[in-house]
Design brief:
- The complex is a heteropentamer, with 1 copy of chain A, 1 copy of chain B, 2 copies of chain C and 1 copy of chain D.
- Chain A is mainly alpha-helical.
- Chain A has a domain of about 180 residues: MetI-like fold (Orthogonal Bundle), CATH 1.10.3720.10.
- Chain A contains 13 helices and 1 strand, in the order H-H-E-H-H-H-H-H-H-H-H-H-H-H.
- Chain A starts with a helix and ends in a 6-residue tail after the last helix.
- Chain B folds into 2 domains: about 55 residues, no CATH class; about 170 residues, Orthogonal Bundle (MetI-like fold).
- Helix content of chain B is about 75%, strand content about 0%.
- In chain B, helix 3 packs parallel to helix 6, helix 3 runs antiparallel to helix 8 and helix 3 packs across helix 10.
- Chain C is of the alpha+beta class.
- Chain C folds into 2 domains: about 210 residues, P-loop containing nucleotide triphosphate hydrolases (Rossmann fold); about 120 residues, Beta Barrel (OB fold (Dihydrolipoamide Acetyltransferase, E2P)), CATH 2.40.50.
- Helices cover about 20% and strands about 35% of the residues of chain C.
- Chain C contains 8 helices and 21 strands.
- In chain C, strand 11 and strand 12 form a beta hairpin.
- The longest helix of chain C is centred in the middle third of the chain and has 18 residues.
- Chain D is built from 15 helices and 10 strands.
- In chain D, strands 2, 3, 4, 5, 6, 7, 8, 9 and 10 form a 9-stranded mixed β-sheet that branches.
- In chain D, helix 1 links the parallel strand 2 and strand 3.
- The chains are: A mainly alpha, B mainly alpha, C alpha+beta, D alpha/beta.
- The interface between A and B is large, with 100 and 107 residues.
- Bound molecules: adenosine-5'-triphosphate (ATP) (2 copies), spermidine and magnesium ion (MG) (2 copies).
């Protein structure tokens, strides 16, 4: 800056690159900004995934001691799907149900933090994130305590006959769905909050002025304008929830197992690497398909 | 009439409080148990009030090591992921260039990949490359999966920013760097802070990916996982409670009047919402 | 949602309306009545509480105290969407996710009306035919403002609130929109409450003009009434410009009040005096002052002041002269550029005269001096 | 190239350097509830005694909850001839056999294990996967059977009761280890786990599938069943003898039951994995635990079957009641009703494992 | 960053400046010179390219072609922060995270200047004393605009660009700010380039006024010159109002051009004619027209048109009459309210007359009719 300062007027300062060079630098800049992060992802995500992709086409009869041959065994995919479609379906069913519940809970929460909390905004925001600092395993175990057959909650529900004398909460689909909802709720709330916070309150006033009741205002203005955050939040919720297996494992029974449990077992217990890899790719493909359809329908493709 | 209007104004707040309650319920249990002297090693039931666990949080030899290690990993991974992710977010939000959608996909995919798959495939890479597992492989893994969340969060914030403010700054003698430092950064900071918080919590809380890539390094979640099977020492609840309380205290401290936190842009909302 | 079908509600009445923000009192015990079907203009300095007043009428802001009545109906606590009131917002507040057509149709839709042919009619009225499918972001400032206008007008509300609706338009378009607004207002009998900081706009359009200052109404009346005989110095300088000479009234003599100012004696008809004893401001509008070269050209019955021309500026329609008096104040004189006079030279001596029936007398706080525009003689009260 | 090579290693390819001479440390991974502790779980007396005696600091981690889970975690590294940073691990015989087959286990020096060779029970010598006891030295043996919590349910005697009794619906767990659960089921069908046909396996599996579908079984667990049983979250389960007896010490309503159709016998073995750098220290520890007084001290606390001859005599001094307990020092009657699960080749193991895992939901 | 200390850079020159956005040409080969230290006003309809021009001068927009020169120095590619140029933005662009004080101090700080007493002085100048600690969101529209003004002025740049800086201010404050701007400008010798849509503002303040249309300059000259003798119909109606009668010129006769319009014959001095044959617009400003009751009151040498008064409106300084002519056009006539005339009754017959030296003649596209304000005779060009 100083070089410019002392340059006499009317003379192009030496520090100022010629326009062409500046434009070139400008075109290079995004790539420079991207380089470290993209390289990281390519090396530690894309490369391993390629390797995994290859593994999904290995000879399914290979084993740890004999090794695996790449035989382009596309049959691994239908085989895996045939054996585990119930868990597949359940993953989407549970994640979808949890998402619906999370929307019912998360939208009001995000709305209140963004628009009603005033100076408590940051505090409430951290309240949403802070539970994650208490290890999720600790919290899940706490849920086990809360939902436990001998716990207060079950006792109460039994007393008011919402549960039969033998009824329980733990080890039911409900427990798994509640666990998923609980676990991933912050991922939904945070982006939703971000877009609700940006919402211009004057638009809401304008809607009210134009005869829209609060419900209508929500439906016609708030909701559509929060769509980017809503879409992002739904994805951040749904994607990991579909692949999760800890909640099913800790709060469910084998009848609640999701595809994550199957993949876990394929890699670690059954030692069927090709099938594990094939299931992983099937899951990713299914998730991506849902994601793309969702983005297309929400009209928020530029989230990509 | 007046009551129904009052109710209409408040019900959503009521619902939000209920949801917060739902989020806090397990924390309450954890907090209660942190003051519990369990009747047996395998029991979670509240037995007897005690302060012993708090007086002696590190009674269980390796737990505090694990917590410390998790904090270290979380810190390094957060700093790295936030730095790399913020740069990427700027590139994606502010520039049009070839291969932009490819990069966007590269950012989205890790979020669409189950953690288990991330963990095993990365492990395979480390094993094939002869990389010894430990602290740094965990950091590498954490940076990888936190990166996407940072990019998405910061990008959203950038997208909502008024470019004219940056132009105004440049017009007022702020160089590119000064503009970034004085205007862009403070305005994007809430987004970056949110991203960093998210990254830290993701890293601190991760079990699945860490479990594959940690070698003998034991993080707090891994410790808890192991402990869960042989009876959790009550001190685990102390750590859980303390971490939570610390996060809250930090924010409360920044709210003390007179010390306005630079990340808090307190614009009083004119008018009220319908 | 059938308020629309109700008969027009009658006068709009604000009773003792107050709104405070923390320590700032934006609107301060304001009471006024806007006759049903009239065109009401609200003028006042920036930050004097105009927007806040409109927002309370619309129901977007809850009064700290006081009431809003439509006819006999107390609507103070009625939710905005239940009031037969629409607003054209100062910031437009167009829905960014809806195109122009849907923005304009919004109010009709909410009331379950599906007159889709109304919308093109409305768009054509604001000269935006063919813009129906654009999004607000694709419009220039002026175009956005017209959409906001159409969006409110289409509902034919009982009261239409306009918060500087023509602010972003250039002069030509602005004049056209003024005429159109006025036409719509008379045609549909809607009560208009129009905030503007354009004095000329307020005067040409409104039946009643209210001048606000620091949250209160200083004067309320017809444009000509308030202009010709302002109630306060603030109004005298807000509604047009005024030369206010500091003097002392010596009481009535016949049907005139005698005033001594800066050593000279003047008189003002009793009917145009708001004080007849003690410190006063003697006011004369710049266009009511005439300039001549010498004292003997002053017609009989007129009063005069002598000075030096320090500045002349050509404003197209008229020329503005600044005349420095012997005691140092600078008087403003407008001379119409109607081709009848030759311009007077800058630096020359000149005499400004006026007929007493064009002067007016206002009480003056002791210690206050001449108030002649546009000097920075005192700060305008802004906000609190 | 295409595909990946097998994970089999040989000692020649994958040599380890022993640093025991300079580093007096030992990383020891074991199962929970598998070592003696004092009353408030703050000390491990026998390990502390070992450290005092040898100066070797033992890092003792209870991170083995399930054989499969542990194997899954280490397979990649060991298969690539990389260390797992553990000097000593304890795994069940069938898995020990597999790891030995894969060449992932270091040979021990018999000269350094005098107590082992002197005191190892004869029944545990000459095992097919390690005939000379140079690779896998038994830590404890035990019985897989049933357990119930008497404060939640009434007594249980048979596997069929566990799988069908309506009052137990949803309050039962079984073990995620195929051999444990399927072994008991085969026995309950009157078949011999040591020698069965695929059809017999399928019959047993059908029985299990029915129980799962009916919601009888809440979960399939590793060692973590113990906590649930103690709390009463589950009423009954398939479990391991020592764990349950330990729980019974604090709550006498908790009982271990050898089903009428018989129990399953297993042993868990200490092994030094490849690339471990403290083999000599490990050998010292292995030999230490084969001193009868130490073995008795351990058995008195963990209540598993002690593999050390002479420990029973030592136990008489400590706790005569335990010395007479057939679940710790089994008698002939006990042994006659218990079997060891059949040795499976790799293909059979995978097939059975696949079928079993599919039934248990994964 | 001591450009401030440099000697003033000389004239600001735009050479053949062009900026296109996709298919829209916002600025189209614009060339002009703004003399150093002069006050330059830029007028034009919404969307005609005013903001784009300013942005190219400030360096916020790169020209598609053409050059920007400050004295001899080509600054076309210089980064904005290296130009001794400041802007008051149309949208204010206040930094929301900084308070008013810090907003105003921003430019000083960047140049390492710590004159913290400058800031209160500046705030007091824009009448915002005591507002230093408010955030922009806590200000009314007009208050925000004044902060933006202070933020740019405090830097005393060589060229100050003002994009409708007074748009949200009320008349009184506006006049004060106008005077203050002008004072600062003369005092510090800063070149001002001021975009406004207020014709009067442009004329009172500027030394030179440029009227822009569709990316080009239509006329550039002194306020009086352009007002008195506009170059095009667009200018005639943008800079003030005009009555433009469609007629045909029959060539010169002596020092006059003869015109036939609507069956009547008129004449215009040659020196005030931009065409002397073919279709023309005969223009007369509303204030140059006079109203009398009967034809015989028209003074000699004047030309006249007879009609009916359809509307009168009181505007304070003057009264506006609309006169419907025999052929149906409505002429606008301003009569100054200087107390000399009695108002004419609405509905009555009247004669409007003017002196030929106050008329002007412009070429007319065949087929175009009368252009008299403020009828909706043709759409204004807005946006693209
Ligand atoms: N939400 C708020 N918080 C604090 N002060 C406020 C708020 N809203 C308005 N004010 C203050 O109240 C006063 C009146 O504001 P208002 O917007 O009604 O003024 P206005 O007359 O519309 O001004 P303008 O002509 O500039 O739009 C101002 O001083 C303003 O700063
Ligand atoms: N970034 C852009 N992309 C596309 N078109 C643009 C862009 N910026 C300006 N334009 C177009 O260029 C033209 C000139 O715009 P500009 O903002 O310079 O107008 P203006 O004269 O300042 O108008 P106003 O008085 O409404 O502010 C307009 O038609 C506008 O729509
Ligand atoms: N608490 C120690 C449990 C040891 C169990 N060993 C596993 C045996 C598997 N059949
Ligand atoms: Mg306002
Ligand atoms: Mg503009």
């Amino acid at each position: 800056m100083n070089a410019v300062a002392h340059a006499p007027a009317g003379q192009r300062p030496a520090t100022e690159p010629p326009p062409a060079a500046r434009r070139r630098r400008h075109q290079l800049l995004p790539y420079l900004l991207l380089l470290p992060g993209a390289a990281w992802l390519l090396l530690f995500f894309a490369a391993p995934m390629l390797q995994l992709g290859a593994a999904s086409l290995y000879d399914p009869t290979g084993s740890l001691s004999t090794g695996y041959a790449l035989t382009w065994a596309f049959g691994n995919y239908p085989t895996a799907l045939q054996a585990y479609w119930p868990q597949f379906g359940r993953s989407f069913l549970f994640a979808g149900t949890a998402l619906a519940l999370a929307l019912l809970m998360g939208y009001p929460l995000a709305y209140v933090i963004a628009r009603k909390a005033g100076r408590w905004k940051n505090l409430l925001l951290v309240c949403v994130i802070a539970p994650m600092f208490t290890s999720f395993l600790v919290r899940t175990l706490a849920w086990k305590t809360i939902l436990s057959d001998n716990g207060v909650l079950v006792g109460l529900l039994r007393d008011i006959h919402l549960l039969g004398p033998d009824g329980r909460l733990l080890a039911t689909p409900l427990a798994v769905v509640l666990g998923l909802t609980y676990h991933f709720l912050p991922f939904l709330v945070l982006p939703l909050y971000a877009s609700l916070e940006r919402l211009d309150h004057r638009l809401l006033e304008a809607a009210g002025d134009l005869y829209a009741s609060p419900l209508r205002t929500f439906q016609k203005v708030t909701l559509p304008l929060s769509r980017p955050g809503l879409t992002a939040g739904m994805l951040l919720f749904f994607i990991p929830a579909t692949g999760d297996y800890i909640n099913a494992e800790l709060l469910g029974t084998p009848n609640e197992y999701m595809i994550g449990n199957v993949i876990d077992s394929a890699f670690l217990v059954r030692l069927d690497h090709p099938q594990g890899a094939a299931l992983s790719f099937l899951l990713m493909a299914a998730i991506l398909a849902v994601v793309f359809v969702h983005l297309r329908r929400a009209g928020t493709e530029d989230l990509l | 009439m007046r009551f129904s209007r009052w109710f209409a104004d408040r019900w959503v707040v009521g619902v939000a409080l209920l949801v917060l309650g739902y989020l806090f319920l397990p924390i309450a249990v954890v907090t209660a148990l942190s003051f519990n002297r369990p009747s047996s090693r395998l029991s979670y039931d509240f037995n007897e009030f005690t302060l012993d666990n708090w007086r002696n949080p590190c009674a269980t030899s390796d737990m505090c090591d694990a917590v410390l290690r998790s904090v270290q990993i979380g810190f390094v991974a957060t700093v790295a992921a936030t730095a790399l992710g913020t740069l990427m977010a700027f590139a994606l939000a502010r520039h049009r260039f070839r291969g932009r959608s490819g990069i966007n996909l590269l950012v989205l995919l890790p979020m669409a990949t189950p953690e288990l798959v991330l963990g095993t495939s990365l492990l395979a890479l480390f094993v094939a490359g002869g990389v010894p597992l430990g602290f740094w492989t965990v950091v590498v893994a954490h940076v990888m999966f936190c990166l996407s969340f940072v990019v998405v969060t910061v990008k959203a914030r950038l997208a909502g920013m008024d470019r004219r403010l940056e132009e105004a700054a440049m017009d007022l003698y702020a160089s590119e760097w000064q503009t970034f430092r004085r205007i862009t950064l403070p305005l994007v900071l809430p987004g970056i802070v949110a991203a960093a918080l998210l990254a830290f919590s993701l890293s601190f809380d991760d079990f699945i990916v860490t479990n594959f890539n940690s070698g003998t390094t034991v993080t707090f979640p891994m410790y808890v996982w192991g402990a869960a099977q042989r009876g959790i020492p009550p001190q685990v609840n102390v750590i859980g409670t303390a971490m939570f309380a610390m996060a809250l205290l930090l924010v409360l401290a920044s709210m003390v009047p007179g010390r306005r936190s630079p990340t808090t842009v307190n614009c009083p909302t004119r008018g009220r919402d319908p | 949602m059938t308020e629309m079908a109700e008969p027009p509600a009658g006068d709009l009445r604000l009773v003792n309306l107050t709104r405070t923000f923390g320590s700032v009192t934006a609107v301060d015990g304001l009471s006024l009545t806007v006759a049903r079907g009239s065109y009401f203009a609200l003028l006042g300095a920036s930050g004097c509480g105009k927007t806040t007043t409109l927002r309370m009428i619309a129901g977007l802001e809850e009064p700290t105290s006081g009431r809003v009545l439509l006819g006999d109906r107390d609507v103070t606590r009625l939710r905005p969407y239940k009031r037969p009131v629409n607003t054209v917002f100062q910031s437009y507040a167009l829905f960014p996710h809806l195109d122009v057509f849907e923005n304009v149709a919004f109010g009709l839709r909410r009331r379950g009306i599906r007159h889709d042919d109304e919308v093109p009619r409305m768009l054509s009225l604001v000269q935006l035919d063919g813009f129906g499918h654009r999004r607000p972001a694709q419009l220039s400032g002026g175009q956005q403002q017209r959409v906001a206008l159409a969006r409110a007008l289409i509902n034919r509300p009982q009261v239409l609130l306009l918060d500087e609706p023509l602010g972003a338009l250039d002069g030509q378009l602005r004049r056209r929109m003024q005429i159109e607004l006025k036409r719509i207002q008379t045609e549909v009998g809607v009560t208009f409450v129009h905030v503007t900081h354009d004095q000329e706009e307020a005067m040409t359009m409104a039946d009643t003009v209210a001048v606000m200052n620091a949250g209160r109404i200083e004067q309320l009346g017809t444009p000509a009434g308030s202009y010709e005989f302002p109630a306060t110095a603030y109004v005298a300088n807000f509604l047009g410009q005024s030369n206010l000479l500091a003097g002392d009234a010596d009481g009535r003599s016949g049907d005139h009040v005698a005033v001594t100012a800066h050593g000279a004696r003047f008189s003002v008809p009793v009917g145009r005096s708001r004080a007849d004893r003690g410190p006063v401001h003697l006011g004369v509008r710049p266009e009511k002052m005439h300039l001549v070269d010498t004292r003997d050209q002053v017609p009989g019955g007129c009063q005069h002041v002598t000075g030096t021309i320090t500045d002349t500026s050509y404003v197209g329609v008229s020329t503005r002269y600044l005349l420095r008096t012997g005691w140092g104040s600078e008087l403003t004189v407008f001379v119409a550029n109607n081709g009848a006079h030759d311009p007077l030279p800058q630096g020359g001596e000149a005499v400004a005269y006026w007929h007493p029936r064009h002067a007016f007398l206002l009480p003056r706080e002791p210690g206050r001096h001449d108030r002649v525009n546009p000097l920075f003689d005192e700060p305008v009260s802004v906000g609190s | 190239g295409c595909g990946i090579e097998g994970g089999r290693q040989t000692e020649a390819d994958c040599v380890s350097r022993d640093l025991s001479g300079t580093e007096k440390t030992l990383a020891f991974s074991n199962w929970p509830q598998y070592v003696d502790v004092n009353d408030d779980w703050t000390k491990r007396p026998s390990l502390d005694e070992f450290t005092t005696r040898t100066g070797i600091k033992v890092t003792y981690t209870e991170d083995i909850n399930d054989n499969n889970e542990f194997f899954g975690r280490v397979q990649n590294q060991l298969g690539a001839c990389q260390g797992i940073d553990r000097d000593l691990i304890v795994l069940t015989d069938w898995l020990a056999a597999r790891m030995i087959r894969l060449g992932w286990i270091q040979q021990l020096d018999p000269a350094k294990l005098p107590n082992v060779h002197a005191n190892l029970l004869p029944s545990l010598q000459n095992r097919s996967f390690d005939p000379e006891n140079r690779l896998a030295i038994p830590w404890q043996s035990g019985l897989t059977g049933l357990a119930y919590n008497g404060s939640v349910t009434k007594e249980i005697r048979t596997v069929d009761e566990l799988l069908t009794r309506p009052d137990l619906r949803g309050k039962v767990t079984a073990l995620s280890e195929m051999r444990d659960t399927m072994g008991l089921l085969l026995q309950s069908n009157g078949h011999d786990p040591a020698n069965f046909t695929p059809a017999q396996f399928d019959d047993a599996l059908t029985k299990l599938r029915r129980a799962v579908a009916a919601g009888q079984i809440r979960r399939f667990t590793g060692n973590d069943y113990a906590a649930d049983l103690a709390r009463g979250d589950i009423a009954a389960c398939v479990g391991w003898s020592g764990d349950v007896i330990q729980l019974a010490k604090r709550n006498e309503k908790i009982r271990f039951v050898t089903p009428d159709s018989g129990g399953l016998l297993f042993s868990d073995n200490m092994m030094v994995p490849i690339r471990a750098t403290h083999r000599a220290n490990a050998e010292k520890l292995i030999d230490y635990y084969y001193e009868p007084p130490v073995a008795a001290q351990l058995a008195a606390s963990v209540n598993y079957i002690c593999p050390v001859q002479g420990a029973q005599a030592e136990m008489e001094k400590l706790d005569p009641g335990l010395a007479a307990n057939p679940l710790i020092f089994p008698d002939e009657a006990m042994l006659s009703t218990s079997t060891v699960f059949m040795t499976l080749d790799e293909a059979a193991e995978r097939e059975y494992e696949r079928k079993f895992q599919q039934v248990i939901g994964a």
